[in-house]
Amino acid sequence: MNQGDATLSPQGSGTASSRVCYRFEQCEVDPAGYRLLVRGEPVGIEPRVLELVVYLIEHRSRVVSKDELLERLWAGKYVTESTLTRAVYEARRALGDDSREQRIIKTLHSRGYQFVAPVSELTSDPEQESTESVEASTAAAEAPPPEQPHTSRTRRTFGIALASVLAVALVAVTVVWFGSAAEPAARERIAIMPFSVDANASDLGWAELGLPGLLAETLNERAQMTVFPANRVRQALLQQGVAIDAPQEEQVRALRDVFGVDHVLFAHVGRERAQLTVGYDLLSADGHHIAGAAQGSGAGGLAVALARTITHEINVAYKAGVPLRKIGPDEFVNEAFARGLQAQLGGQLEDSVRYF
């Protein structure tokens, strides 16, 4: 099949008179029924994500480019590459795969994706299933009714029970097909890099991981965002073989593949008179770049100011009235907590105890 002829078919690669399901590892995908089973149990998955899985399976003999996936699965809609990256992330999570092992969906940088797990195709005949269903229905209709009293109370009880069963079945079908009765709005995903510190402010060493930790707490509680904190980001880059001082674009690509992020924050902390200052670069997975700055009288104030600025830049609601559990009005306490985070996230557990 030529690449230009590739289409997503609910029947898979089977003929018009057959229905194909795909089985791999502990998963089974039924394209026609929009259903995913893992270890025999239905797993909620968004229809578009399931279509992505099916498309990659049906074209598993080759690498499928990102442009092709965007064109085929989001035809006529304006979406960015980060939309596809997030869909791949969700697909891997539903299938029990991850970006580090890539046992099922493999990323080929600058080329696209390929389905690499061995696949078995299971074919059934819908016409045969329909014939068997009709025969069973006919036999049931011809069978004599059971001899039992048909009181109005019995009929009413049966009607209530039948209505309950149908209601439960309807909810179950909705959950199996679409993952939930109502899909929540997609949350923006941001990865926070460890902050660099001004050479003339050596006393701010705690800001490398401690200040990103306070920022992550603020974004988690006051903004509808999924936040990947600095220690987890650093670990992911090391696992991907990407140096912490590699070019920003290379780090963004790696974090996009690992976490499906929309944005990556790079920041540099310093001090100006009595204020803590931070200059930042916010890089989006689609290549957009925002540079800015924020300042605060202490660790807590700076984290809050930075969170407010970032959410404004990427048009995410910021709920200023939500109380923060880890940041209070006392900046001495806020800095102590940030120092504890620095020690804890840096692996110095004994040192962190005295701050918490």
Verbal overview:
The protein is of the alpha+beta class and 356 residues long. The protein has 2 domains: 7-121, Arc Repressor Mutant, subunit A, CATH 1.10.10; 188-347, Rossmann fold (3-Layer(aba) Sandwich). Helices cover 42% and strands 20% of the residues. It has 11 helices and 14 strands. The protein has helices at residues 47-58, 66-73, 81-95, 126-142, 152-178, 210-222, 230-239, 248-259, 299-313, 331-345, 349-352, and strands at residues 19-24, 27-30, 35-38, 41-42, 64-65, 105-108, 112-115, 120-124, 188-192, 196-197, 225-228, 263-272, 275-284, 289-296. The strands form 3 sheets. Strands 9, 10, 11, 12, 13 and 14 form a 6-stranded mixed beta sheet that branches. It has a 5-stranded antiparallel beta sheet with strand order 4-3-2-1-8. A 3-stranded antiparallel beta sheet has the order 5-7-6. Strand 6 (105-108) and strand 7 form a beta hairpin. Helix 3 crosses helix 8, helix 6 crosses helix 9 and helix 6 crosses helix 10 (331-345). The longest helix is centred in the middle third of the chain and has 27 residues, at 152-178. The chain is elongated and about 75 Å long. It starts with 18 loop residues before the first strand and ends with a helix.
